[in-house]
Amino acid sequence: MDLCVALDLPSAEENLALAESLKTYNIWMKVGFRAYIRDGKTFIGALKKINPEFRIFLDLKLYDIPNTMADAAEEIAKLGVDMFNIHASAGAVAMKSVMQRLSSYENRPLVLAVTALTSFDEENFRMIYEKGINEKAEQFAKMSFENGLDGVVCSTFESRAIKNATSNDFLTLCPGIRPFGEDAGDQQRVATLERAYEEGVDYPVVGRPVYRDSDPKGKVDEILKVISTF
After folding, report:
1. Which among 30, 41, 61, 136 is annotated as catalytic?
2. Residue ranges of the alpha helices (H) in the chain?
3. b/e map 147-181, b = 16+ CB within 10 Å
4. pLDDT tens, position by position, for the chain (230 residues)?
5. Could you tell me the pTM of the whole model?
6. Is 61 tagged catalytic?
7. For a FRET experiment, which of 32, 114, 115, 214 has its CA 20 to 30 Å from that of 143?
């Protein structure tokens, strides 16, 4: 289990200060829509300058026609990030196009597909897909697995079923982790570190419980100590 910390603060300066405070840890950093749109690829470089060992997850959730997604995936690969994601609902052709485009890269980034956002509850999800979260997440995961992706983004509660339906090596990255039972905020399907471990989560993503803490470094230290016991 590898910890991923979300850099979702209001400014590049605040995010970089957070990263600076965590530079002694060999962890993942999640760069999302807000940070990337505002700060661009220079922000990626700044993170690597703080700690070249930081592994970076670019969380842009690509969703477009297949060729446009493949073009974007290639540009992302050139940034030197370690992982990025697409929307599974873009479909099998888009998945194949992305993976084929990246096939020439010797050290391509990992590619994950978003199944069901953790902000969805069952009722709202069914209004869109007419299926339950578990059923649709598993369907999306199988399609992702069959088309060569490395894993999916899902909630903790779908992780074990997805691995059972695909492979234990098929990665699950799970937002909405509240390490010690912190407030859920705008998330619906949240879980503790212990539950994430039980469900086979590979990458627990922690945001607000870290960056809203008065001592982010201390909180990450607590989290890593728990992970080390698993």
Report:
1. 61
2. 12-21, 33-50, 66-79, 92-102, 122-129, 133-146, 156-165, 193-198, 208-211, 216-228
3. bebbbbbbbbbbbebbbeebeeebbbbbbbbbbee
4. 999 999 999 999 999 999 999 999 999 999 999 999 999 999 999 999 999 999 999 999 999 999 999 999 999 999 999 999 999 999 999 999 999 999 999 899 999 999 977 677 777 778 667 678 888 889 999 999 999 999 999 999 999 999 999 999 999 999 989 997 666 555 657 899 999 999 999 999 999 999 999 999 999 999 999 999 99
5. 0.92
6. yes
7. 32
130 φ/ψ sector (left φ>0, alpha ψ -120 to 50, else beta): left
Question: From residue 103, how far is each of 55, 82, 107, 110, 173 by CA, in Å?
Answer: 21, 15, 9, 12, 22
Burial class of residue 10, CB neighbours in 10 A (0-12, 13-18, 19+)? exposed
What's the token pair of residue 45? 């470089």
Evaluate the CA torsion angle 90, 96, 100, 102 in order and state its sign.
Answer: positive
- Residue pair 62/36 in contact (Cβ under 8 Å)? The answer is no
Q: Are 119 and 83 in contact (CB under 8 A)?
A: no
